[in-house]
Design goal:
Elements lengths: L3 H4 L1 H13 L8 H10 L2 H19 L9
Length: about 70
């Protein structure tokens, strides 16, 4: 069975916030919530990895043209 955590992270997160706010423990996805807390926000990880990739690409392909004054 596919969990909404795997298909729509934003919706999953909002549902977890709602369930915790209402103290509805039966609706809390404990397994994925623990995983999420341990790993951090995957969007931030992706952003960080993309920044590193772009920096490496910029270093790999330096500007070949210079601006003449």
């Amino acid at each position: 069975m596919i969990n909404i955590y795997e298909t729509d992270y934003t919706l999953w997160k909002q549902r977890q916030i709602d369930a915790l706010s209402r103290k509805n423990w039966d609706e809390v996805d404990v397994k994925h919530l623990i995983e999420d807390l341990e790993m951090g926000d995957p969007r931030k990880e992706l952003r960080s990895n993309l920044i590193i990739l772009i920096a490496h690409l910029i270093k790999r392909y330096p500007a070949t043209e210079t601006i003449d004054d």
